[in-house]
Amino acid sequence: MDTLVHDIRHAIRTLRQNLGFTVIAVLMLALGIGGTAAVFSALEQALLRLPPYPEADRLVALDVTATAPGRGVDSIGWSYPKFETMRAATQLLEDVTARTSRDLTVAGAAEPVRLRVEAVSPAYFALLGVGAAAGRVLQDADDSPATASVIVLSHATWQAVFGGDSAVLGRSVRVNDVPMVVVGVAQSRFSGLDGTAAAWIPVHALPIVTSPRALTGRWAHGFTGFARLKPGVTLAQARTEMEAIGRLVDAAHPLPGGGTTWGAALAPLDDARNNPLGRSLLYVLAGAVALVLLIACVNVANLLLARAIAREREIVIRSTLGARRGRLVQFLLTESLVLAVAGGLVGLGVALWGVELLRRAIPESVSSHGVAFLRADTLTLDPGSLVFTAVVVVTTGLLTGLVPAWRLSRLQSTAPLRGSAAQARGMGSLRRLTLRGGLVVAQFALAVVLLGGAGLMLRTLEQLAAVNPGFSPQGVLSFRYSVPRGDTTLSSVALFTGAALEQFRAIPGVSGAAMSGCAPLAGCFDILTVSRIDGRPPFGESETPTVRTNYVSDEYFRVLGVPLLSGRTFNGGDHAGSLPVIVLSETAARRLYGTTRAVGRQLAPSLEPFSKQMGQVIGIVADVKQVRVQEEPQPDVYVSLRQAPSDQLTVFLRSARDPLTLLPAARTAMRALAPDVPLYDAKTLPELVRQSTARERIVSISLTALGVLGLLLAALGIYGVLSFNVAQRTHEVGVRMALGARATDVVGLVVRQGLVIVAAGLVIGGVLALALNRTLHDLLFGVAPGDPLTLVVVMALLLVVAGAAAAVPARRATRVDPMVALRYE
What we know:
The chain is of the alpha+beta class. The protein is built from 24 helices and 24 strands. The chain has a six-stranded mixed β-barrel with strand order 3-4-9-6-8-7. Strands 16-17-22-19-21-20 form a six-stranded mixed beta barrel. Strand 3 and strand 4 form a beta hairpin. Helix 2 crosses helix 12 and helix 9 packs antiparallel against helix 14. The two termini are 41 Å apart.
């Protein structure tokens, strides 16, 4: 122990004497260690940590499965009737819970607000072990239509909306204009399984505050299911039971037309929340940060090796005086570990900064299967991240110090004691150049991989920007509102919608106003089955096709700039009492009719206006991207809001000026029509387009930043190697110039030496990039993982940077005075 303490003191004293070297090395390590710790904090929360609920290993997610000929098995959400069939049949699960989310208007504070409200079975809170900070949570007694008019607020909502006023308990608030009593406030920091809930109501409150058919629609698969395994029940036993229950569900709720059969399945909650795309994104970021850390380690190892070579005399003296090889290795590794610890301490500051950047980069909550696997508000450097950082620090210290320690501990001769001239001549040896040059080769190889990945993601963004989303986003503002409760007949909802449109059209600067049930790229459309085509079952009953359905106003296609390919769009003659009409997307026409010449044909989706009378196709429009810019075209069906009104609508206002300037006037217009109806989720359509590529942009920006950092570190590496080599070969350079070598010859000698090292790194890096960039496959669009153009551009960039880095020591070599160099000892 005394020896170790002595070595640490000596290392600190030595590093303080070489402050410039120490600062550079610590900063390099801090960037690598801090970035690694920040990304690990996200990786741990998303993939390594169990959900933060009691007995999380016994929690399971429940799915309905749909098996269709030629399409395999799809896992989807539950309709409430199917969920009740399953809950009544299970013997091996407890606290069986259904949940769904709705954006609802809550009035009762200073002004109405729009909140994300979860409708849940009362067992939800018992399942997750969540209690109340004030009042109570939902109870079994609330799970009936007669007692369902209660609401529980999240702690954040209680503070932000109601000012933390304890008098809110027992108070009546209006949820979608329906009186509900606040019975409790959930415990702090709980915001539901998906991390976005602001309040909770019983499932049986849904028909009261939304649609009367919310719990009776057999094909409305909007619920997720969760439960806990009973004590002693294994996962295999529960899965066997769910397979049997799936057959009961299919028998109780057969799909009209046959073909598709229902089933049921379960998976551990931790498995269900692991979104494959989110997981691949985190793996890519973790890999990129690890590459930067490796480059930093190699660079610091190179710096230590340079210092070690200059300390050969000291090491040989120690060896001559009896120091064993193991003792010398410990002595040298202690210095690198001290450097790593210093880098780790500074790296904690970098990690905190990196975590803050991640919080801003990721959405409020990223979920899969209705379960959050990454939440911005809980992203932090927890004890697990600190332990990981400590392991990284120790590993980094060993990696950076191992090469110079191994090199110096093998010195057996006393050559370094015979004067600087001999040492200088020895420093030009190929073996020593190869050792340091090999580290630079590794740096450039890793930089190729990093920049190659960044280049592929930048190419992906370029390809995505060139994709036609099917509409013209520029100059369009979108926002949402919910039709106020009251008279919810078709005619009254249509009347309110028409009045709202008139108010919005009257706003100065608005050139067009339209509405729809779902905005492009929002993914909130309904999925309906097609029961009849031209009066007959589709495809001879061999398959029941599904279509994405949106409810739109007359001006929707004009305001959004969706091209009309044939026929017409909706107009004032298409109302509740007229013939039901439909507009199809180009892909829908091809899928359903095999041709785009479908105007005048008949269609019956599973929607109320078409249950009694077949709908007529009146127009074909271009395909619109409804979920993501990179999606393949899907069949879309558009229905007039006059014939199938929706109570939750998105408004679109087109203007030649900045669309966001229209929002205050739009709020004023809505207050004049319905004072208690808030407008929310306001954004421009270009912003919607950007949000749809947010994942790709995050990865592109991250990889590019890390790639540039890796490139700079690699450039410093080649600069350091060549500068050191020039300094060690001063005598040789002087001899060459005294014998008539020109400056260009000397420059060529130095640059060629650097380019040999760089070329080796580029070749190795190219091979690694071709292999490792396949991990980006799920994130790429319009470009292959082995895209040769990207690789060539990256290699050319690295050559230019390497040439610039080599130019400085090369120019320094030309300034060597031959007479001084010949006297160099």
